[in-house]
Design brief:
The longest helix is centred in the N-terminal third of the chain and has 41 residues. The chain folds into two domains: about 70 residues; about 70 residues. It has about 190 residues and is mostly helical. It contains six helices and no strands.
């Protein structure tokens, strides 16, 4: 196989997955926006610190929505058998890249570059932070959470550690151990 064919083959697999990931992210963004505003303006309107609670609830629901979309659509061929582990890893990556990276960008903007103000905050958090976070998120989902090799390794491990079932002991024993020994078949079977 030539390098061109290999590169073309990788691109043919990579690009649709990236587009699906972006579409799932757009849906998650919409869910976050709707849930945040419903919580803020309707459900929690008389609650103190409603902005904080609305943000937490909207973020958790959006992450759950994104996990379902990525698990069953964008990375459907690579999902793990252990959904709980995958969900925890997905949630950790989402929090780290969706919150941590934008916060780091705001910190750099404020304290290293001295750019303070609403426009600088929005650019650093919601443009640079979200873009860099999205790149890291896609990479971590693709090569860690939904890594194709992990699913294959888990299945291979399950095959090698499967329990060997032996024939049950006969109801009547003759006293001979030969009668109770399971037949292994012919050599090579």
């Amino acid at each position: 196989m030539t390098t061109e064919t290999t590169t073309a083959h990788r691109t043919a697999r990579f690009l649709p997955q990236l587009i699906k990931f972006g579409a799932v992210g757009a849906v998650g963004f919409g869910v976050n926006l709707v849930v945040f505003n419903v919580m803020l303006l309707i459900v929690l309107r008389n609650v103190e610190h409603r902005t904080i609670y609305a943000t937490i609830i909207a973020t958790v629901i959006a992450i759950l929505t994104n996990w379902i979309g990525n698990r069953f659509w964008a990375f459907s061929g690579q999902r793990q058998d252990n959904a709980a582990r995958e969900g925890v890893e997905f949630f950790a990556v989402s929090l780290a890249t969706g919150t941590g990276i934008p916060l780091l960008c705001v910190w750099v903007s404020h304290y290293l570059l001295g750019m303070v103000g609403p426009v600088a905050d929005n650019i650093s958090a919601n443009v640079v932070g979200l873009a860099v976070g999205m790149l890291f998120r896609f990479a971590l989902y693709r090569w860690w959470v939904f890594a194709p090799g992990r699913a294959e390794k888990a299945k291979a491990k399950a095959r090698t550690t499967s329990v060997v079932v032996t024939a049950p002991e006969p109801a009547t024993t003759t006293g001979s151990t030969l009668a109770r020994t399971p037949d292994g078949g012919l050599v090579g079977d």
